[in-house]
């Protein structure tokens, strides 16, 4: 059974590494080394120890109408998280989520843990991308009167050194493909933007020439308007003087 489990974990790890896609925030980061942190996992394997991390809670109370959340950080890709939850008295809700960067993955949908079931509820899952926060949540929203009690044990088993090294290479290949695809997409967008820029620059130059011509035409219209206004003023004054002479005569007559 252990051999079959190990094989299943190895296959699942390889599949997760092969499907690895960098997060949006990492792809948008201007630091070229930020991406490598998630690909590499641990920065130094010379002091790596394949040591389990165990988190235990015994008879932990859940307030009536409230909830209890157990956050566990996993920093080594390919780690296996195994849990056992035991309910001694009364029912409560239980769910598991995984948080990576800006995304949240539902590992275990919220289910009702029945107190009548003998033995703990167990499960096991693989963590592919890190850093990752695994959140075990116990809800007591089934009751607003009774306080519930839960016991749990969570074991985080990191991969072997060989598996970790192999995982690095698989993630690097998957990441290289993502970077290459994004580079092609960016180059296509750059060329399209360059073509659009050329068209817009040509149109802008045409508009500048048209604007210059319009400005000249505008100035000519203003000059014509002023000349006509001045001439009308002059003719109006002359007409007034002539009308006065014809009506009143000349002073020397």
UniProtKB/TrEMBL annotation:
Transmembrane segments: none annotated. Keywords: Coiled coil. It comes from the Eukaryota. Residues 190-224 form a coiled coil. This is GOLD domain-containing protein.
